[in-house]
Specification:
57% of the residues lie in helices and 0% in strands. The chain is an all-alpha fold and 89 residues long.
Length: 89
């Protein structure tokens, strides 16, 4: 092969790789920066990040259940069927 053809191929490859790296750097950097803004604690609807419509309307930050709180109208782990089965054992 000609030395000029090899130089053109290497230059093309270098250009493609550098532009790909630059675009990836921009994209990943934007995603990281945009992700950090979502982790801010909301200030009762006054922040620019609104996590729910209820928070926007009530102007109060969301109050979440504790991990030990029962979820839903009944605690599924203490249902009558499970308590009865445990009592039989």
């Amino acid at each position: 092969m000609n030395a000029d053809a090899i130089q053109i191929a290497l230059g093309t490859l270098q250009g493609i790789l550098s532009s790909t790296g630059f675009v990836l750097f921009l994209f990943i950097g934007f995603c990281v920066l945009a992700g950090f803004t979502k982790t801010r604690k909301t200030a009762g609807g006054a922040a620019s990040v609104i996590k729910s419509l209820d928070e926007r309307i009530s102007l109060q930050p969301m109050v979440y259940f504790a991990p030990s709180a029962p979820h839903g109208p009944a605690d599924q782990l203490k249902s009558p069927e499970l308590l009865e089965a445990a009592a039989r054992k």
